[in-house]
Every structure is written in structure tokens, then in C-alpha cells.
Amino acid sequence: MLLTPHAAWYSPEALADLPVHAADNIIRYLAGESVPIVNPAFAAAR
To answer: Which of 1, 9, 13, 18 is the most exposed place for a label (fewest CB within 10 A)?
Structure first.
């Protein structure tokens, strides 16, 4: 078995897109729109 760290998102393009997507999610959240939820159990507990 060969184990390697998962870093598929780690590219120059992905790093450039990260702040754009984060800002988009913040704007959508503040506007009352839905945003992607990574952990739905955490959101339901709030």
C-alpha cells in the first residue's frame, strides 16, 4: 500500500481562486443566500 498526502487542490490556479471563492461565499452569506456547507451536522447543531 502506498499512502500520499492529498493535495489535488494545491496548484497556482487553485491558490489564485481561493480568495475569490471565499469572498464570493461571504458576499452570498451576507446577502442571505445559501452557501456551501462542508459539515451539515455542524450547521444543523447551531
So the answer is: 1
User: Three-class SS of residue 4?
Assistant: coil
Rounded to whole angstroms, the Cα distance separating 32 from 43 reads 15
The pLDDT tens digits of the residues spanning 2-46 come to: 767 777 778 899 889 999 999 999 999 999 998 888 888 877 876
Cell triple for 33: 443566500
State how far the alpha carbon of 28 is from the alpha carbons of 25, 33, 40, in Å: 5, 5, 18
Distance CA(10)–CA(16), nearest Å, equals 10
Q: Is the pTM of this model over 0.70?
A: no
